[in-house]
Structure formats: C-alpha cells, structure tokens
Amino acid sequence: MPERPWWRKRLKPVTALRARWSNHKREKTKKPEKAPKPRTYRPIHLATLISLLIVACILTGAAASLMWEAAKVPTNVPSSPELAVREAQLRLDVIRNILAIGAGTGGLVALFLALRRQYVKERVDHADQEYKNRTAEDAKHDAAERRITDLYVKAAEQLGSEKATVRLAALYSLERLAQDNPSHRETVMSLICSYLRMPIGEPSGVQALISSNPAFIDYTKDSVILEDLEVRKAAQDLIVKHLWCFFLPDGRAAHDGKYWGDIDLNLRGATLIDWDISSCKAGRINIEGAHFIGDADFSGSFISAVSATGAVFLGNIDFTNVTVDGLANFRLARFDGDADFSKTPFSKLGVFMHARFHRCAIFAGAEENKLIISEALANLNPTKPHEWPQGYRLVATQKPGFGVIQTTEQAMKGEALET
C-alpha cells in the first residue's frame, strides 16, 4: 500500500474542523418539527354570507328569467280575450313559482348554516366530553395514587410502633395494598425485608429463648422479644406466601393469584426464624451475614442467584433440588447443623471457600467443575458421614476436630492448610 503524502496529515485537523462546522450549521438550520395544531372552528365570515346570498339571488334570477321567457305567448298567435286572460293567469303562476324558488334557495342556505352549526356543536361537545372524561380519569388515578401513598406511608410508620399488634396490622395492610396494586409489590416486599433486617438481639440468646421450655420463660422480661418473634414469623410467612408456586410436568410454573413474581429479597444481616422458602420462585436473594435460627429450608426452589457470604445457619439447612440460575456464593458461611446440598444443579458456580461445616455436609450428585469447596473446614467426626463431590477430600489439620477440604491434587501434593 503506497504511503500517504505528508500534506494529508497537515490537512487532517482542517478537514475535521470543517466537518464539525458543517454538522453545526446543519443542526442550526434544521427546522424543528412542529407540533400538530388543535382543530378549531372559525365563525362564518360576513363576506361568505353575502356571497351565499348573492349566489342565491343569481340562481333565483336566472330561474325566474327562464320561466318568464317560457311563459310568453308567441307573436304569431292571434290575440283574443280568452288568450289574454290565460296569459295573465300563466304570468301569475310564473311569479308564484319564482317566489317559491327564491324561498327554496333561501331555505337551502339556511339549512346549510343549520347543518354546519349542528356539526360544529357536536364536535365541540364531543371534544368537551373527551376532555371531561380524561380529566375525570386523571383525577381518579391521582386520587387512587394519593390513597395508595397515604396507606403505604401510614403502614410504614406503623411498622416502627412499639406494639406488636400495630406492626402486625401494618404488615397485613401492606399485603392487601400490594395484592390490589401489582406495581407496588416490589416496594412492599422491600419494606417487609427491611423490617426483617432490623436488629432483634443476640441470635444465640434468641435461639436459646426459642428452644427453652415454655415453663421456664420469664415473659415479663422477654415479652418484647417474643412479640417481635411473632411479627417476624408473620413477615416471613407473607414473603413465602407470595413467592410460592408449583411446577407442571413440562417445567412451566403455575401458581394461584397470590404469586407476586420473581422479586429480589434483600435480607442482608437479618435474623430469620425457621426459614422455609421451599417450592418458591424468587429473584436474587441476598442473605449476607444473616442468622438463621432453627432450620432453613430452600428445597425445590428456583432462585436467580444467592449471596450468602458470612451467613450463619444455627440449624440444619436443606438446599436439595434447588435450581440456581446464577452464582451461589456461600463463602465464609458457617453451618452449625447438617448442610444438605445434594441434587442441586449449580448452573454457573457454587462457592464455599472458607466455609465451616460443624456437622455433616452432603454434596451428593454435585458436579466438580461447578463447585469451589477448597479451603473450607469440616468436622472430622460428624454424626453422619460427609459426601463430597468427586475430586474433593477432607484432610486433617492442626485445628482440633476439623479438617480442610481440598481437591485430590492438593491433597496428594501435601498442601494441607495449617488452619
């Protein structure tokens, strides 16, 4: 390819400047698009009325002259008294007909004006009615939105009440509001999740309070926490109620009218009691740093993605047959009970790095290339045997009672972590 001449480089800035100026000039001279003008009806001008009258008079005069000429007696007919009388009657009939034609022409003009007046009136009335209907619909919509906003604000304020009954009423008001207004469902769900993210107390103390014998509970001391637990369980039930759906044999999701759609759940740092979201279909679930008191059941659910970094599961977790479309991140999670992740097809990746399994961990049926469990710790003496995916094994470390999970290659090279 021949080399470009040196002067082309010198002209390049000038060419670019010229192109910019041309575009600026084109944009400046470009005519803005005119908005269509509303259709208006002007009154009939006086000249138009005079013109119509002149035309009517001309037509009447022309018809009169023709009829008058036609009524004349030919000159070659001999005159007689009877003929003169007949001619007078004929002229009288002609005059009568001419007047009738004039009246008819005037009536046509009046009819035209009446029709135009009626047409304009109907068009204006129709436009006014459309405007009134549109204004009424806008007013109705604004009133509905104002009422929804008032209910939403009132319920949000009631969630901060000290009385558990008021908080329960606020939850059910929000549920009814979202059920009747689909556009507010995600907002209501976010508000319920924000309530669950509010602190409740030390999770271990709450777990001890729940598992203790009711006969030994001091209700005067722990009444506030117990009432808050009931409200939190009601909030959890509302979430599960509106995310639950069942799946047909062909894989399609079916549900009743209470399903709100694939809504994301932000439960970061929340305290959840006996969490049961089995057979539900949700969006992204963020449970980073959350504490699960009691058992956590995710079995059979369809979830877009799970972010559970640093989550603490004080009870058993059932994550079997869960379909996760995106990333399932359980990094730094702690499992105090049995952790069952069997038959879970991680579509992208399941991350369990630096997780800690205090009891049994089951990954039966999981694919090795879709899991990262290395550097996680597990109990060396579980109540039930661990089931690791192919390619992973548990190697003993200096930490008493715990071993580190490594790939087979790492274990063979003796790369056990001194944790």
UniProtKB/TrEMBL annotation:
The chain crosses the membrane at residues 44-68, 94-115. Keywords: Membrane, Transmembrane, Transmembrane helix. It comes from the Bacteria. This is Pentapeptide repeat protein. It comes from Micromonospora pisi. The lineage of its organism: Bacteria, Bacillati, Actinomycetota, Actinomycetes, Micromonosporales.
